[in-house]
Specification:
The chain is of the alpha/beta class. Helix content is about 55%, strand content about 15%. A five-stranded mixed β-sheet has the order 2-4-5-7-6, with helices on both faces. The protein is elongated and about 145 Å long.
Length: about 750
C-alpha cells in the first residue's frame, strides 16, 4: 500500500481508536444513565414493565462491555470491518434503550409523550458523544432511536402531536448533521495534527541517528587525527628532550627548551580536544580503583612546580592530616581536574602564591572531600565568573589577550566532576585572586595506607618554622603537629633568632628549624649563617625550603652547615624522611644526602649486561627517538619495521628478548595481530611470556582494552618521554628478572 492509499486507512484507524477510547472511559456513565432512565420510566409505566426493561438493557450493556474490552486488548489495528460489526452490536444494545421511549409514549400518562421525546433526544446525545468521529457508525448505532421516533410519529397520526413532530424532523436532522459534521471535522484536524507529530518524531529520530553517526564519525576523526599528530609529536618532543641532554651553549639550550615547551603545550591542546569530544559523544568512561589522593595532589604540584618557579610564585600543598589517603574512584580523572585548576591558577598569578588545600570528613566509610585551589592572581568579575565553566570560554577573549589556551580545561573539569556526582565552583574578585573548589565523595579503600613513620620519637621535641607567608607557616605547623612535634612559628629572621635564644635560655631548645629561603630583610641563607655563628644555638638542625631551585644553592647551604635542602612543594614523605634523617644520631652524612634529594629524579636502571629489546615501529623518527632514549651500554635495540618483521625476529629467538615495544599502526601486520601471533607461538612452545608494551598514539579507552585483549601487558602512549620510557622498561625488566630467580629457586 502506498502512502496516499495508507493515509485514509490511518485516519479511519485513528477515528476508531478515538471512539473506542471514549467508549471505554465512559462505560460507568452508561450504567448511570440506564438507572436514571429507569427512575423516569417508573413514573410512567408499571413497575414490572420497568424492571424487565431495566434488566434486559443492563444485560445488553454488559455484553457490549465485554466485547469492547476484547476489542481494546486487540488494539483494533487494521480492523475497520470489525469495528463496523461492533457498531451493529452497539445498535443491538441501543435497541433495548429505544424501547423506553416507545413504552413511555404508549403509557397513557399525561407526560408520556414528552418523556418519550426526552428519551430519544438523550439517547442520540449519548451515542453521538461516543461515535461522532465516525459518522456512518454513529448513524448505525442510533438507528433504533430513529425507529422509535417513527413509531411515535405513526401513533400520533390524526392527533395534535402529529404536525409538531413532523415539523421537528428537519430541525432534528439538521442538529444531527451538525453534530456529526463537527465531530468528523474535529477528528480530521486531530488526524492532521497527529500525522504532523508522527512526521516530526520520525524527522527528529532521523536527525538523532544522523547526529549520533556524525558524533561517532567526529570521535573517530579526532582519534585518528590524535594518532596522526602524536606520531610526529613524538619525534619533536623526544628529539628536543634528547637535545637538551647534550652539551649546548646557553643560546642553543634556550632554543631546545622552547621547542620542548611548545610541543608540550600543543600536546595539552590535543588532549583537551580529545577529552572534550569523548564527553560530547557520551563516551566518557570512569574507572573505579584504589588510589592515593595525597600522592596524586603532590604529583600535580611537582608537575606544575617548574612553571611556578619560573614565575617566582609559591606553590603550597595542604592536606588535612586526619583524612584517609587511599580512596576508591578514578584517580587519573581526579588528577586531571586538579591539574587543570592548578595550571590555571599558576597561569593567572604573577606574584604571591597558589594554595592547593584538601579537607573533608569521613562518615560511614565514605570521605566527603573539598579540594580548593586558591591563588593571588588577577581574579575575575561576576560576569566572567558566570560563564567560566562554559566550553571555549576564557576570562580574556580579546585579540590582545595576555593568556593563551583553548578554554576547554574548566569545561572538561566541570563535566568530569558532574560525572562523579560532585560539584565545582569558583569564588573570585577582580584584582584579588580566585578560589576554585571541588566537592565530591569517594569510598575509603580497605587497602592499607603506605605511611612512613618518623625514625625518632617526636614527642617533646620542638620545631621552629620561619616563613614570611602566613599560609606556609600554618600548613607546616599543622603537618608537624600531626607528626607529634611541638611547633612554633616566626615570620622573619630576627624574630626567629630571638625565639631560638629564648628557648635555649629556658633549657627547652628547638630540635630543628625549617627556614624559608626567600624572605624580606633577612633571607634563609643569612639566617642560617647567623644561627651557625651563634655558639648557643648553632647545634640546632636546619632545613631550608626554597621555591626556586638554583644551581649551586644546595652545595652552598651544605657548606654553611644546613642539614636539609628541599624544593617547594616538598612531598610529605620526603619532608618527614629528611626530618627523621636530620634528627638521627648516627649520621650527618645521611642527613645531607636525604636533604638534597632532587624533586625530579629519573628512575635509575641497573647497570647489568645489555638487555635485548625488540622495537616494532614503522616510523624512522620514532625508531631514532626510542633508540637514543635508552642507554646503548645497557640495552641492545633490535628494530622491526612492521609486525610481520617483529614476528620473524621473535620466531628466530623466542627467549632472546627481555621486552617488546610494539607500535599499533604498522603496514603488513599491525601490532595487535603481531602480539596475538607471538602469544600463540609462546603457547605452542610452552615458554614464559615476554612482556609486550603497547607503544601507540591511540589514547581512547577502547584502544587500551583492545591492546589488553591482544595479549599486551602494558600501555605507553605517544609522545614518549624519557622518564616514562625508563620507568616502564625498569618495571618490566625487573619483574621478569625477579620471576626467573624465583623459578630457579
Amino acid at each position: 500500500m502506498n502512502d496516499a492509499a495508507a493515509q485514509p486507512a490511518l485516519q479511519e484507524e485513528d477515528a476508531v481508536s478515538a471512539s473506542l477510547k471514549t467508549i471505554m472511559t465512559t462505560q460507568a456513565s452508561r450504567y448511570i444513565h440506564i438507572t436514571a432512565w429507569l427512575i423516569l420510566l417508573l413514573a410512567l409505566v408499571q413497575i414490572e414493565t420497568a424492571i424487565v426493561w431495566y434488566a434486559l438493557t443492563m444485560i445488553a450493556g454488559a455484553v457490549r462491555s465485554l466485547i469492547e474490552a476484547r476489542m481494546r486488548r486487540s488494539s483494533l489495528r487494521n480492523s475497520g470491518s470489525k469495528y463496523r460489526i461492533y457498531a451493529f452490536v452497539a445498535m443491538g444494545s441501543c435497541a433495548f434503550w429505544a424501547a423506553a421511549p416507545v413504552l413511555a409514549w404508549n403509557s397513557g400518562h399525561q407526560f408520556g409523550e414528552a418523556a418519550a421525546m426526552f428519551f430519544i433526544v438523550n439517547g442520540y446525545m449519548l451515542a453521538f458523544s461516543q461515535f461522532r468521529s465516525t459518522p456512518t457508525n454513529a448513524l448505525i448505532v442510533t438507528s433504533p432511536y430513529a425507529v422509535a421516533f417513527g413509531l411515535c410519529l405513526a401513533s400520533a397520526t390524526g392527533s395534535a402531536m402529529f404536525f409538531p413532530l413532523l415539523a421537528a424532523i428537519p430541525l432534528f436532522v439538521a442538529a444531527i448533521s451538525y453534530v456529526l459534521m463537527f465531530g468528523y471535522m474535529s477528528q480530521q484536524e486531530l488526524d492532521r495534527a497527529r500525522n504532523e507529530r508522527v512526521a516530526l518524531i520520525e524527522e527528529l529520530q532521523s536527525a538523532r541517528i544522523a547526529a549520533e553517526k556524525a558524533s561517532e564519525a567526529k570521535s573517530m576523526f579526532l582519534a585518528n587525527m590524535s594518532h596522526e599528530i602524536r606520531t610526529p609529536m613524538n619525534g619533536v618532543l623526544g628529539m628536543a628532550e634528547l637535545l637538551t641532554g647534550t652539551e649546548l651553549d646557553s643560546r642553543q639550550r634556550i632554543f631546545a627548551d622552547t621547542i620542548h615547551k611548545s610541543g608540550a603545550a600543543l600536546l595539552t591542546i590535543i588532549n583537551d580536544v580529545l577529552d572534550f569530544s569523548k564527553i560530547e559523544a557520551g563516551k566518557l568512561e570512569l574507572e573505579t580503583a584504589a588510589f592515593d589522593l595525597r600522592m596524586s595532589i603532590e604529583d600535580v604540584a611537582a608537575l606544575v612546580a617548574a612553571r611556578a618557579q619560573e614565575k617566582q610564585i609559591e606553590l603550597i600543598v595542604r592536606f588535612q592530616p586526619d583524612l584517609p589517603r587511599v580512596l576508591v574512584g578514578d584517580g587519573g580523572r581526579i588528577r586531571q581536574i586538579i591539574t587543570n585548576l592548578v595550571g590555571n591558577a599558576v597561569k593567572f598569578t604573577n606574584q604571591g602564591y597558589v594554595l592547593i588545600s584538601v579537607s573533608g570528613k569521613v562518615e560511614n566509610e565514605c570521605a566527603a572531600l573539598r579540594i580548593e585551589v586558591t591563588d593571588t592572581g588577577i581574579g575575575m568579575d561576576a560576569e566572567v565568573l558566570g560563564k567560566i565553566f562554559d566550553a571555549f570560554e576564557q576570562a580574556d577573549t580579546s585579540t590582545t589577550r595576555t593568556f593563551g589556551g583553548t578554554g576547554l580545561g574548566l569545561s572538561i573539569s566541570k563535566r568530569l566532576v558532574t560525572a562523579m556526582d560532585g560539584r565545582i565552583g569558583a569564588i573570585s574578585k577582580l584584582g584579588e585572586g580566585s578560589t576554585f573548589w571541588v566537592e565530591m565523595t569517594a569510598p575509603v579503600s580497605d587497602q592499607a595506607e603506605i605511611t612512613t613513620a618518623p625514625a625518632i620519637d617526636a614527642a617533646n621535641r620542638r620545631a621552629l618554622i620561619v616563613d614570611d607567608i602566613d599560609v606556609n607557616r600554618h600548613i607546616l605547623a599543622e603537618q608537624l603537629t600531626a607528626w607529634g612535634f611541638r611547633v612554633d612559628a616566626a615570620e622573619n629572621g630576627s624574630q626567629a633568632l630571638a625565639m631560638m635564644r629564648a628557648a635555649m635560655a629556658d633549657a627547652d631548645p628547638y630540635a630543628f628549624a625549617i627556614l624559608d629561603f626567600f624572605m624580606p630583610g633577612m633571607d634563609g641563607r643569612q639566617l642560617a649563617c647567623a644561627i651557625k655563628a651563634d655558639s648557643e644555638i648553632r647545634d640546632t638542625a636546619l632545613m631550608v625550603l626554597t621555591s626556586v631551585d638554583r644551581p649551586g644553592d644546595a652545595r652552598c647551604f651544605r657548606d654553611i652547615g644546613v642539614d636539609g635542602y628541599l624544593i617547594k612543594p616538598a612531598r610529605a614523605t620526603l619532608l618527614l624522611h629528611t626530618i627523621s634523617t636530620m634528627l638521627s644520631v648516627d649520621g650527618e652524612s645521611e642527613a645531607t644526602a636525604g636533604a638534597v634529594e632532587p624533586i625530579y629524579n629519573l628512575p635509575a636502571i641497573a647497570k647489568t649486561a645489555r638487555k635485548r629489546i625488540l622495537l616494532a615501529e614503522d616510523n624512522e623518527v620514532n625508531q631514532l627517538v626510542i633508540k637514543h632514549m635508552l642507554e646503548p651500554n645497557l640495552f641492545e635495540i633490535v628494530i622491526a619495521n612492521n609486525g610481520r618483521e617483529a614476528l620473524r625476529w621473535f620466531e628466530t629467538d623466542p627467549d632472546g628478548f627481555e621486552l617488546i615495544l610494539m607500535d599499533v599502526s604498522m603496514p603488513e601486520m599491525d601490532g595487535f595481530e603481531a602480539s596475538r601471533a607471538i602469544r600463540e607461538l609462546e603457547n605452542g612452545l610452552k615458554s614464559d611470556p615476554t612482556p609486550i608494551i603497547c607503544l601507540t598514539a591511540h589514547v581512547m579507552a577502547a584502544d587500551i582494552q583492545r591492546s589488553q585483549d591482544a595479549g599486551m601487558d602494558d600501555y605507553l602512549p605517544k609522545p614518549v618521554s624519557t622518564e616514562k620510557l625508563h620507568a616502564i622498561v625498569k618495571r618490566w625488566t625487573k619483574d621478569r628478572a625477579t620471576e626467573k630467580k624465583a623459578a630457579e629457586a
